[in-house]
Design brief:
Distance between the termini: 29 Å
Strand content: under 5%
Mean pLDDT: 83
Number of strands: 0
Structural class: mainly alpha
Shape: globular
Order of helices and strands: HHHHHHHHHHHHHHHHH
CATH class: Mainly Alpha
Radius of gyration: 21 Å
Helix content: over 70%
Number of domains: 1
Number of helices: 17
CATH architecture: Up-down Bundle
Low-confidence stretches: 1-17, 210-214, 406-410
Length: 410
């Protein structure tokens, strides 16, 4: 067999080997994410409309709610990630975070004020902050290094399937219940409870030795052991996050161009369908191809999404922009998680994910606040044009960095 044939055979077999080699707990983590995301995205797909139409919220208030909620989640990921490193156990923290999120779901349909929604969204994101870093570190703990891109890609793909199911449930329930948003929001409670049960019962952590379990307290000084390559990944993640903002603005854009309220969840269906379809192939590709160029493709997709959304005068262009937005997420989110796992030391992996998410969450808070202010002061097109401009700067910077690197380092 020729060398070329051998290379082609290996390349073609890589995805199948990845599927077979992934541990069962990765699938359970993915299914748990699917159920919780179905619940969360059912609410998220209707929440901006609910806030504006039922509770009288302004666009600026929505930007504040989304930004503060995500920023809180990011801050708590540092604490939970470091604590999971200290304890040497990650599952209990992860399940606690999912349980907190599940407990908030009934609050949304019961809310009678913007403050009530803000409180529920805040606690929901507290749950996300508690579970995020331990879960991401657990994926790396139980997956062979050569398959980490595939593992993160699979979890993201299943998570995104849930993000498709949730808005579809919202859409069907809105039609069935004659646009009664409060009644529809109650549907989100069941899949959230299923997610908690799945993760509590079937996820298995790797066994740890007595030496691993008896760890000294973690200190801030331990962060100094994180290598320069890790901090470059953190900076890269923050830069990319500044170029986008909360997906709530996609829903508002769809309504702005005249999409009927009961069809608004289709925006999230489209976005997450493309996210789910591309997340695993993009993650698996990160295990064997240039990660820098994959990131560059991801940022270019975000630029295209923003331009389409800025120019949108009909729901069709909003759906097209949402599709590109989902592809951007597929090419960047799992890959950045793999880069964090690969560059952070194993005993600081939870801390590494926590710091990464803290910085990215701060960038998302800033981006969402700016987006809300631009929307109110100038208009929706300005919001998305600003995102496209920043994403263009980010992509140009990444392209220059790639060109300056030696070919084998890309």
């Amino acid at each position: 067999m020729s060398r070329a044939t051998t290379r082609g055979s290996h390349a073609g077999d890589a995805p199948r080997a990845s599927w077979r080699g992934l541990p069962g707990s990765i699938w359970v983590l993915g299914l748990g994410s699917l159920c919780m995301d179905a619940s969360s995205e059912l609410i998220h797909s209707l929440l901006p409309v609910f806030l504006v139409q039922s509770l009288g919220a302004s666009i600026v208030e929505i930007g504040v709610i989304e930004g503060v909620a995500e920023g809180t989640a990011a801050a708590l990921k540092v604490v939970s990630g470091a604590l999971s490193d200290r304890l040497g156990r990650r599952k209990r923290l992860m399940v606690l975070g999912y349980a907190l999120a599940a407990a908030t779901k009934p609050v949304f349909p019961l809310a009678r004020s913007v403050g009530s929604v803000f409180g529920a969204r805040f606690v929901d994101r507290v749950g996300k902050g508690i579970r995020g870093a331990p879960r991401d570190a657990l994926v790396a703990d139980i997956t062979p290094p050569a398959l980490r891109g595939a593992a993160y890609g699979l979890r993201q793909a299943l998570d995104s399937v849930g993000a498709v199911v949730g808005p579809l449930l919202a859409l069907g329930a809105m039609v069935w219940l004659a646009d009664d948003i409060r009644s529809v929001l109650w549907v989100a409670t069941l899949p959230a409870l299923v997610a908690v049960a799945l993760l509590a019962i079937w996820v298995r952590e790797p066994e740890r030795s007595d030496t691993q379990q008896e760890r000294p307290p973690l200190r801030l000084a331990d962060a100094r052991r994180l290598p320069r390559s890790y901090w470059l990944v953190v900076a890269l993640g923050a830069l990319f996050t500044l170029a986008r903002f909360s997906e709530a603005f996609l829903v508002l854009r769809a309504q702005d161009v005249g999409l009927a309220t009961h069809w608004v969840p289709l925006v999230f269906v489209v976005m997450n369908a493309f996210y789910a379809g591309a997340a695993y192939p993009a993650g698996a590709a990160a295990d064997r191809t240039s990660r820098s160029r994959l990131l560059l493709v991801g940022v270019a997709l975000l630029v295209a999404a923003d331009l389409l959304l800025a120019a949108a005068a009909s729901p069709r262009l909003v759906f097209a922009g949402s599709a590109f937005w989902g592809l951007h997420m597929a090419f960047t989110q799992g890959l950045l998680a793999k880069l964090v796992a690969d560059t952070a030391p194993a005993d600081l992996r939870g801390t590494g994910f926590g710091i990464f998410n803290l910085v990215s969450g701060g960038a998302l808070l800033l981006a969402s606040l700016v987006a809300g202010a631009l929307w109110s002061a100038i208009g929706p097109a300005a919001t998305f044009l600003a995102g496209a401009s920043f994403a263009t700067v980010a992509s140009l910077g990444l392209a220059v960095a790639i060109l300056r690197r030696r070919p084998h380092a890309a």
